[in-house]
Write a sequence for this structure.
């Protein structure tokens, strides 16, 4: 690992100030992704600003919704009684990610900021536009089995690796940030970016801005939800495809529904036009297939990941069925029903 | 082969920082260290405190061999910067036995022959102790899922699950 300076921030304002003074500094909280990337020489910060002791560790009710401090660990989040009861989709998706050790360390805010797991991003001996803008994309003509099928560009076909974020996309969370210009809330759909011509920018966060909290609106889909994750082994692996679903049913008719796909794009993939096909329809296989066909209409495979298109279609149909039947996917017994 | 391209990227000006004093309580014993910021907790335990029971496997948080209990919670010591844990309490495999008796989890691993080469075992046992403390695993499926952060290349998994079940029943 490279040498770097270390500073501990005691409040948010101090953290923002310290970051403003050093354009090559990074915040560190759980460190599970950043320390790893530093060992691979992918991240080379001049200074780490330790925000792990900031008072951003509580989960509080806010009127109809919930405010999750950015430093709440993934484990605390997943097992919090209010999350389990009102937002079980978020709990389930969080438990589908990483390992128990990593969930004890990793923060909620940091989960949003984790970098892609593209092998070429990690391998500093190869070109990568995300790591080194303008150097080229090795994945386009390389081993791209894990890569994007939606929203990619000629500059980058990397995917966002988070599970938790796929649930936050369905829940339409807001990302609360503080920065040199004050505080603002970013709707979750606008937080992460598609690669386009600037794949080095994962999010719309500006330098010096820090995530302070995630807020959840009232609607938690606690009756009809599921998080279905398909991966190469049963646990502790990144998604090939994952699906988060939240439905509102009246009898067997769908009043409203949202879904997001993980592992298929540079950000959790929502498609409001495809979701609209669910509204007012009977919750049955034909309805689910119509929505799945719509969301994957523009999907594009590369040499090794073409299988993801059909996998995503089937996973979404299966997940919509699980949510409609109120039989969410278990994250310990991995049989898919 | 081409030189490693990223070496050419702009490297920020850094003056080597001075070592930073920290205090850790390791297995009940207080330790004061002066430490460089890039020293992981794993390296601090092994190289500075000579507690080599905690193993370095992958050094990237993928294998769990470095698992220790930090303020009672299991973590990967290889992805933890020691400087960030000033004031913390750490339990390693060396700190589990007490009063001349093995910890029930250690005894259960022996009873069930839950290892072959033994390299992953300190991490498995610390992780399993953390698992029992969390109280979220009740079935074999749940044990397997919540122990998935600890790999065993010898494939002793069935016996590891049996050992954890025994220790869990005793706790």
């Amino acid at each position: 690992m490279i040498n770097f300076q270390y500073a501990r921030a005691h409040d948010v304002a101090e953290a923002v100030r310290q970051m403003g003074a050093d354009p090559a500094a990074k915040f560190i909280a759980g460190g599970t992704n950043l320390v790893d990337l530093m060992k691979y020489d992918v991240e080379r910060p001049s200074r780490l600003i330790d925000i792990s002791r900031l008072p951003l560790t509580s989960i509080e009710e806010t009127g109809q919704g919930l405010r999750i401090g950015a430093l709440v660990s993934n484990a605390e989040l997943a097992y919090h009684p209010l999350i389990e009861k009102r937002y079980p989709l978020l709990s389930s998706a969080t438990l589908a990610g990483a390992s128990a050790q990593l969930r004890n360390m990793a923060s909620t805010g940091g989960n949003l900021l984790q970098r892609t797991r593209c092998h070429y991003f990690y391998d500093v001996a190869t070109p990568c536009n995300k790591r080194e803008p303008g150097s080229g994309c090795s994945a386009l003509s390389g081993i791209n089995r894990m890569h994007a099928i939606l929203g990619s560009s000629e500059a980058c076909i990397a995917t966002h690796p988070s599970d938790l974020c796929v649930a936050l996309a369905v829940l339409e969370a807001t990302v609360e940030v503080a920065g040199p210009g004050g505080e603002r809330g970013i709707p979750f759909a606008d937080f992460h970016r598609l690669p386009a011509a600037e794949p080095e920018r994962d999010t719309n966060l500006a330098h010096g801005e820090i995530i302070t909290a995630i807020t959840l609106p009232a609607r938690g889909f606690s009756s009809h939800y599921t998080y279905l994750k398909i991966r190469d082994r049963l646990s502790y692996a990144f998604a090939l495809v994952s699906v988060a679903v939240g439905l509102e049913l009246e009898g067997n008719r769908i009043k409203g529904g949202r879904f997001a796909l993980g592992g298929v794009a540079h950000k959790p993939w929502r498609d409001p036009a495809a979701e609209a096909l669910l509204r007012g329809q009977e919750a049955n296989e034909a309805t689910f297939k119509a929505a799945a066909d719509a969301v994957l209409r523009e999907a594009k495979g590369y040499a090794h990941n073409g299988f993801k298109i059909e996998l995503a279609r089937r996973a979404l149909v299966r997940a919509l069925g699980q949510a409609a039947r109120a039989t969410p996917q278990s994250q310990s017994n991995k049989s898919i029903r | 082969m081409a030189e490693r391209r990223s070496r050419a990227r702009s490297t920020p000006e850094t003056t080597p920082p001075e070592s930073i004093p920290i205090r850790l309580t390791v297995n009940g014993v207080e330790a004061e260290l002066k430490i460089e910021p890039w020293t992981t907790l794993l390296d601090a335990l092994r190289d500075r405190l000579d507690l080599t029971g905690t193993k370095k496997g992958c050094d990237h948080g993928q294998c769990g061999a470095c698992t220790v209990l930090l303020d009672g919670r299991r973590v990967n010591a290889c992805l933890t910067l020691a400087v960030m844990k000033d004031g913390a309490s750490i339990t390693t495999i060396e700190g589990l036995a007490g009063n001349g008796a093995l910890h029930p989890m250690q005894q259960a691993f022996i009873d069930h022959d839950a290892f072959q080469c033994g390299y992953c075992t300190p991490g498995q046992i610390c992780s399993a102790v953390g698992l029992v403390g969390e109280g979220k695993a009740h079935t074999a499926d749940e044990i397997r899922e919540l122990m998935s952060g600890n790999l065993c290349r010898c494939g002793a998994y069935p016996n590891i699950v049996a050992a954890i079940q025994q220790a869990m029943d005793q706790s």
